[in-house]
Amino acid sequence: MTPRFFSFDPRPTRISLILGACLLAVLTAWALADYRGGGGLVAMARAGISAGLMLTFLVSVHRLRPRAGWGITLDAAGVRVARPFSGQPLELHWGQIDSVRRVGRKGSVLGLFLKEEGRVLVTRHLFARKAVYEELIAALEDRLPPPRFDA
Q: What pLDDT does 49 receive?
């Protein structure tokens, strides 16, 4: 089996986080203006909370940037999944994976269920296009048997 790489590129998620950070910047400025106008401690607390959320959004945008080797690799040995917020990839051998199935209301989460009571979840929002996500699911389903008790 030739290695296949499916890269993570969460553009829509990053755009949403950037828009949210811009909205939080406006709310922070508004709360600071209210504080200067005599709003008291409540206005300062609002400014601090919104500034903290804005910083969290911006850090998330930075951590979700596309980079080399960031995605899912399928090869003869198994599956290598790069984690969105940590540096170490998770390497799974084909023998460790019990089944692969969609989870969630709309099937937007791919679950790799392990034999030793565990699971690895890969969400749809980590991919730029739905076609790449569907191609990944098809490649995994070709390699692994369908889940037990499937109707």
A: 97
Which residues make Cβ contacts (< 8 Å) with residue 72, sequence separation at least 6? 5, 6, 8, 79, 80, 81, 82, 122, 136
Residues in the chain with pLDDT values less than 70: 1, 87, 145-151
pLDDT of 31 reads: 96
